[in-house]
Here is the input.
Amino acid sequence: MSRIIVVGAGINGVTAAIELRNRSHEVILVDPGPLPHPLAASSDISKAVRAAYGADEDYTALAERSIKLWRQWNEEFGTKLYHEIGVMFVRRSKMGPGHFEHESLKLLGKRGLKVARMDTPELWKRFPAWNPELYRDGVLEVEAGYAESGRAVAKLIERAKSAGVELRERVTFSQLDERGNHVSGIVLDDGQRIAADFVVMAVGAWTPYLLPFTKKFFRATGQPVFHLKPSEPELFAPERFPVFGADITTTGYYGFPINRDGVVKIANHGTGREMSPNSLERVVTSEDEGNLRQFLASTFPALADAPIVYTRVCMYCDTHDGHFWIARDPEREGLVVAAGDSGHGFKFAPVLGEIISDAVEGKDNPLLDKFRWRPEVRAGTATDAARVQFKERRSVGRRGD
Ligand SMILES: Cc1cc2nc3c(=O)[nH]c(=O)nc-3n(C[C@H](O)[C@H](O)[C@H](O)COP(=O)(O)OP(=O)(O)OC[C@H]3O[C@@H](n4cnc5c(N)ncnc54)[C@H](O)[C@@H]3O)c2cc1C
Here is the structure.
């Protein structure tokens, strides 16, 4: 049994803390709070949960497992955190080999998952909010949907406490307590030291700022998120408006059905603006809003003039290849970094704790090779375009559109 400090109580940190505690380690979870932290990427009204990952079978298989566990969590927590209302990725042009949507349809079909091709007028009639002239093709994944991420984190924080995790809220990490190439704990912003056998840094987009030596691996990017109030809410009900990606490899836009507060969330997945998560620039710009209005006018006429009732800049912790970074630091014994979400980690919440704990314990886990410590992967290399999914969008962006 080890004494382990987990820094950061977003989805990476809280699931790791629970799993490490269940493996009989002594676990301290620190976060400035309040929890779920309002600036955390995990604290949101919704995150897409899908197995559609193009041709990448690792993420598809992991998502399949996660979806089964999300259903189980709904039972265990006695409340619906995960809504299985379908996810559709559609295109304005016919899809073909190599396209994210095409490869997803192929792989999901091969794995026996319930999918449909979005290329018939009959099917489109089910989704009246969409401009029927514009979108021609795509994939509908039936057994997928979204998770209420903020609510899920709140439930997991309670579970961590009841599992015996020592939660230290209103506590802020300042730096590692390093002795030579060994990390023996952390130093807090008030100078206090907490000793441990292992330190797990699960601070998401704060990672390159709290661990400056990781700046060459991670880029914190701000992405705009909008909440709109439609005047015809029935058009955006889940059964008529599944989670969507609208030609996402070129537009970047994706969104969610209306929720219990009458809000439709639409956001953009793009190059983003590099900034610290604590930056004052972390606000949606008039350019972001202008781009959104253009998109809505073309794709969802009924939302074109809908009032925006809330906006947020949510932060990705980008890696150069879009894969997660869950690994021991080869130069600092006792340190594990669990970050690099690149905008797609929340759906794996039910399995993240296990993967991070395997990294801490040095256990064999085939996925840890994909998430390994990989300084060889550099910005601007081919991997830039290999951002797991939606690759075309990001690389074009990188070249400065
Ligand atoms: C716009 C957007 C949309 C997304 N959509 C999806 C989606 O549809 N599906 C999906 O699967 N994923 C999605 N993601 C990705 C998902 O949100 C992330 O994978 C996940 O939330 C990352 O969790 P985390 O625990 O690494 O980081 P965070 O949730 O950001 O948590 C980091 C924690 O570190 C704490 N911290 C910061 N500084 C300190 C300090 N000094 N000391 C101690 N603690 C500290 C913070 O308070 C915070 O609680 C999206 C992300 C964004 C930004």
Confidence is low (pLDDT under 50) at residues 382-389, 391-401. The chain has ten helices and 21 strands. The domain at 3-397 is CATH 3.50.50.60 (FAD/NAD(P)-binding domain).
